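Researcher: Go.
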Amino acid sequence: MWKKLVIVESPAKAKTIKKYLWKDFEVRASVGHIEDLPPSSLWVDIENDFQPEYEIMKWKNKVVSDLKKLVKSHDEVYLATDQDREWEAIAWHLTRVLKLPENTPRIWFHEITKTAIQNAIKKPWNIDMDMVNAQQGRRILDRLVWYKVSPVLWKKIRMWLSAWRVQSVAVKLIVERENEIKNFKPSQIWDLWAKLENALSIKLDKLKWKKVEIKTEKKVLEFLEKVWINISDFEEKSKDFKVTDLQSKKVKNLIFNQSINFDLVEIKKSKSKRKPSAPFMTSTLQQEASNKLGWWVKQVMQVAQKLYENGFITYMRTDDISLSPEAIKQAEKVIVSEFWKEYSKPTQYKWKSKNAQEAHEAIRPTDLSKNASNLWVSGQEASLYTLIYNRTLASQMSEAQIENTTYNFSTNHDDIWIIKWEVIKFDWFLKVYGWWKDNILPKLKKWDSLKSEKVFANQKYTKWPARFTESSLVKQMESLWIGRPSTYAAVISTIITRWYIEKTDDKKLKPTEIAFMVTEFLEKQFAEMMDYKFTAKMEENLDKIALWKVDWVKMMKTFWNKFKKNIDDADEVKKEVQLVGKKCPDCGADLIYKFGRFGKFIACSNYPECKHKEQTTEEQSTEKELKEKYEWLECPAGGTIEVKRSRNGYFLASSLYPEVKWAMAPDVFDLNKQYGWEKCDKCEKWTMIVKKWRRWYFLACDQYPECKNIKNLKIEKKE
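Model: Structure:
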């Protein structure tokens, strides 16, 4: 008979912990939250100190029932949910729902290892109500914004829009960046290069000892004439230069196949060190995995969660970059054994940011003696584990030592042309984490004279601000202290799911038209809520609640008093409409733009008296092109092809629907004509077709999963 019960939040975590406990322990999972604010209405009593009214989630009734039976049949209960505010609140909800004593033992551990688990059982805590109140404050703040602002958006813009405390500010960041791109005015600049007889390419750096900046072709030719170039004898080439995603320009390359003397007037040498980066915390792991592995932030956290629950890495929601003394010693032992003593440099990192939340250790492998090949992991888990392993090991290694060399050439006309090299003298941490290549210095000495094979001038334009990727958005949110790193995955996922943001083919985040409208409205009517500094201040207050420095009810009252006035003022604002500039053909009223479940359309401003509606010019043009190209073609499944539209855009369907439920995106249909509809080489009786998953195309048998033949489809990316 079991005597002691440990409740965790994850079944996978329960399975791992069970291996490390004594025989009289049973481990069960709550499978996440068991109660929450119901979704049907506000469920926060504003007049009674913002007291929330929680209820058990309907899909958790069986879990709760099973846990109640287990509690009755066990002598002791331990709560072992994860170590942060959200999971501290879950532990508190468990005590409420399961009617456990207030002093029910609460155990914390930063890694799922035998030592950590058993030590935690021996030294239990009580539930930290300050952390619970900080989480309650966050949840209630978000609920107030969602339930009070969203209906205002329904009345003033369109139905079923949503506003959030953090997500709306994240959308604002992306909208502002898009406006910067649209308003960007490129300025012309020219680079001058010379290719020397030993194949070195040197760049004009200074004129009269000042940094060079040539902005016109006329100035380029004036300078080249000064250094004895025959400016009438050149070859001109042009190419497209992408100024923004919306604009390109033709730029010139002027090539002068002429020889002039360049003297090596100075050789500069210096030494520098490149330090290894600190071990990962949540935000840096999200950024690095997004950049190096090409993953979404949500995907990073899902894979990290699996590694943690299986006991392979420490807790992955942390704002700390320090390592335990035991981890530092273990890293030193591994480095010395795999390389040699000089590679090792034990280092303790400290994060001085005010963002630091609960005092977790950095994200690291629980056992540095094991790399991915020593663990039962593969695929994504192996990739992320290797990234964490290498970063942790590199953080405890010596700095790379680099020799920097700069050659300064001159034609003796007050000009300096340069070329630079970095030569790695000692790689140290770069052996494990980093990228570098060997550079070989040419054997030159001061006052050597080299002739040019050609001189060329490149026209270009200043670069526009790049759209955010998930990685760069995380970095920007962290720098402005918007939200918590542990919430970034959910924030980004939400704004994409709600169609405020869409992803381009190159994984950039682009705001939809409705995002511009909502952001503009919220900035006018809820300026304080949309202010970055205000959002950061709210996070600081939530941190102070967790540290017992601020009363959460007092903070809520301060917020609500200002927020309620904004809601009342916004209710009085006239509904914003966007005029088309034409009259309704049915009743003569103004036509306006509206948004529906299929996107933007034109309707009569006299609705519901007049129900006239039509497509926008852009939609009419797109639909016309698709119909001319695809309609009346033979459908592979029977009937002919028809062009239809859903929330996700246009698609092709069979004219025999619903008897024939064939549907395909136009781009997939085109690829199938080129690559698909051949006999499956595995089952030899069905057909291979092109399919699309997110942004990737692949070939698969059309009778999947009966035949699981899948092949990569390599398609050249269009410029």
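Model: Confidence is low (pLDDT under 50) at residues 354-358.
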